[in-house]
């Protein structure tokens, strides 16, 4: 069963990467029969992850991951607003973990004004933004993942397992239909999950557009999150999460 789940995860990753694939390609790629691939595609289609077609499959547009550079420019005003709200929570001399999200990057830019923080990150853009600040900065090593401009793998996990921080801030992909923050990347899922486990307070930074649409991997449950920091959202959106976690709504000053 574990091998089947891994193969299906790898097939899904391949479909998302290429946009569309044929049964023939997947059969050769994973060294299994056409019939096995068809069963895998049926399973993924029923889960709502892909669209199964005659002779192959196509990725849903909502699951195709944009590069970090593209994501960085989306909803930039809301991201800056959310970053300010998160900044106000950080006390002097704290130890904090910053994930690889584009909203987290906006928080990192604000932290240049702080001093004597101990900051850990897996994100190249975050590390670059803070490189010349008066804070103590640690970058987790590991295998580079270009899509998120971050690192992952055994070295990354080993470094994370050696620390414990006061606070952690991560981003999230769209989370409708999920009971927690999400990511389209299995690699990022593993790192973000571990980052949260190694902090006392855990915050998710996500603008209101993330309430619509879905993603692949749920990082953790909302019950494990200290607070979701977002912009002003509707009553229905508040009601959907209010019983699960705290919600901080960033407002224009």
Automatic annotation (TrEMBL):
Annotated HTH deoR-type domain residues: 4-59
Keyword field contains Transcription regulation: yes
GO molecular function, one term: DNA-binding transcription factor activity
Entry keywords, A to Z: DNA-binding, Transcription, Transcription regulation
UniProt cross-references to Pfam families, sorted A to Z: DeoRC, HTH_DeoR
Alphabetical list of InterPro entries matching this protein: Carb_Metab_HTH_regulators, DeoR-like_C, DeoR_HTH, NagB/RpiA_transferase-like, Tscrpt_reg_HTH_DeoR_CS, WH-like_DNA-bd_sf, WH_DNA-bd_sf
Parts forming coiled coils: none
Top-rank lineage group of the source organism: Bacteria
Record-given protein name: DeoR-like helix-turn-helix protein
Native source organism of the sequence: Lactobacillus melliventris
